[in-house]
Amino acid sequence: MLYTSYKILTSILFILFFPAFWLYTRVTGRYTGHLNERLGFVSSETVQDISGHPRIWIHAVSLGEVKVAASTIDALKHLIPDCSLILSTITESGRKLAEDTFGRDVSVIYAPIDFVGSVRKSLATVRPDVMVFLETEIWPTWLSQAHRMGIKTVLINGRISLKSVGGYLRLRLFFREVLKNFDAFSMIMAGDAARIESMGADPEKIEINGNAKYDLPAGAVDPAAEAKIRRILNLDADDRVFVAGSTRTGEEEMILHAYEKILKKFPDTILVIAPRHIERTHEIGDLIKRRGFQYQLWTDFINDKQVRATKVVIVNTFGELFNIYSVGTIVFSGGSLVPLGGQNPLEPAVWGKAVFYGPHMENFLDAKAILEAASAGVTVHNSEVLAEKAVWFMSHPGELIDFGERARQAVLKNEGAAEKHARVIERLLSNLTI
Length: 434
What we know:
Elements: H1 2-28, H2 35-38, H3 44-49, E1 55-59, H4 63-79, E2 84-89, H5 92-102, E3 107-110, H6 116-126, E4 130-134, H7 140-148, E5 152-158, H8 162-170, H9 172-179, E6 184-187, H10 190-198, E7 206-208, H11 215-220, H12 225-232, E8 241-247, H13 251-265, E9 270-275, H14 281-290, E10 295-297, E11 312-314, H15 321-324, E12 330-333, H16 346-349, E13 355-357, H17 365-373, E14 377-379, H18 383-395, H19 397-412, H20 417-433
Parallel strand pairs: 1-2, 1-4, 2-3, 4-5, 5-6, 6-7, 8-9, 8-12, 9-11, 10-11, 12-13, 13-14
Helix pairs in contact: 4-5, 4-20, 6-7, 13-18
């Protein structure tokens, strides 16, 4: 009954708002290039490129999920060499990263909106044998239609945060029905497994297999990347660099306050800010200028257009941050000094960096626990503490190196989750063909 109400509501909203949205795309030119795919009309050219058997459709929303998909896809290619892989995203940045990452090895499309007609059309065109959802992607209509069409469904690298579970539990009767459509749940941590079970998932379908995000960084470290980044940023080997990665609104001001204090002790330190949302570049630039600094953009240096002449750099492109971490003397993992759940601290850790993060790491408690169990993570509660600890570590380079090496080893010891998640998919396919 609750699902029927959801289906009716989404259908009404689609009928009411689609004409206005369609007109908006025609007037502005935005979204016209992929509107058909979002409505379920996958092009014949894309379908022709889907070869091999079985067909595995993986849904990854944006950048972070695409990175998880990459490590899982590598494992699937090893386990099921003849499989055909389709990856869907919602965001344009996620699609671009997917296309750059996989080339023609994986068919990349936009996900259909969660409306019966769009989902049914898309599934009927692609005809996957298994539908794989990543992390917290629980789409009621999509799941229901896949189940009705006999398509196996699985949630891999599943996580349900402490912050979000309350909202799910308020709608437990609804989500209990939705979760019945899953054939398997491959969760990150015991806490994630317990939370999805409390939402109504069948405990017999739940496994705990770790976080596949930890597999990609260790495998993606390119020894030549550091030299390349140093050349782009015009850095000497002994230059001190403070990298603030995936920062969010409210954090940049704190980062700059800490940076000012660092400069009093180490006046040649360079600051690289990589905001989570690059559309905020102009806003961050204005903030930097009000603080009395000049800055340049990462795109200023691409193809040797300019040489870095300022102490502050804003990274205004996607996909660069992981390699930029390689040159960091001090690395801060953003989204954590403000209550937004944090970002993955293991990406800089795998480069052998001591990682600083704020108190709000709810979305990465497992990653935080891995670092802290190895005495390799540094919690800072505000800009004053960030500056204080950064100065201490830069004044004790031996300790900085030891912290970084412990961080790297901690990541390497926790590899293997992607293969475990891939084996869950493999078992579903085995059951399908028996």
